[in-house]
Amino acid sequence: MTEKMDRRVRKTKAQLREGLARLMQKKSIKEISVKELVDEVDINRSTFYLHYTDIYQMLQKIEEDAMQNITEVMKKYPIDPDNSDSVLQFIVQFFSIMDNDRDLCLALLGPHGDMAFVEQIENLLAETFLKRLPEKLPKNDPNIKYPYAFILNGCVGLIRTWLSCPVKESPDQVARLTYHLIENTIQGYLNMKK
């Protein structure tokens, strides 16, 4: 019986997430009411309140789950700066997470998304990924913040473009493109410093 109940709970939460993603692509979270969300997914308000206290708590839970997924990928695919395969594997897995929940990620990263969440992802990537990747870059370079910012913002922009594009490239294809763009940026910066 609990398995059937768990399946129903998962299905209801998935419906709510999908509905919230659709609504967030049109308007900000501040403009979305519980009534509007439950009407969007055709469930009762009481069902919503069985799982969440309000829209903000629901969004917070979704963001926490997303960060947990990204953190698990980072643990499972640690980055070794001397092994380009490890970097590429991490990027592929990161894009796979985004691909699995494409509409929701697009909503979170889009114009009506949560900028604090975007910043949280940027900080996590900067701390875990960018800091380990360029062992080749001089650590005492006061201008190193510029290629870091360029790479980070470029990656977020690339993710947004990929998620919103009607032609769906695979996570592997986009990960390889991202990896090469990062490598080219680093190499271009190093060449400029010579």
From TrEMBL:
Start and end residues of each HTH tetR-type domain: 10-70
Q: Provide the GO MF annotations for this entry.
A: DNA binding; kinase activity
What is this protein identified as? Probable dihydroxyacetone kinase regulator
Which UniProt keyword terms apply here? DNA-binding, Kinase, Transferase
Q: Does the keyword Transferase apply?
A: yes
Record-linked InterPro entries: Homeodomain-like_sf, HTH-type_Tx_Regulator, HTH_TetR, TetR_C_Firmicutes
Which positions make up the DNA-binding region? 33-52
**Keyword DNA-binding in annotation:** yes
**What organism is recorded for this protein?**
Blautia obeum
Q: Which PROSITE patterns match?
A: HTH_TETR_2
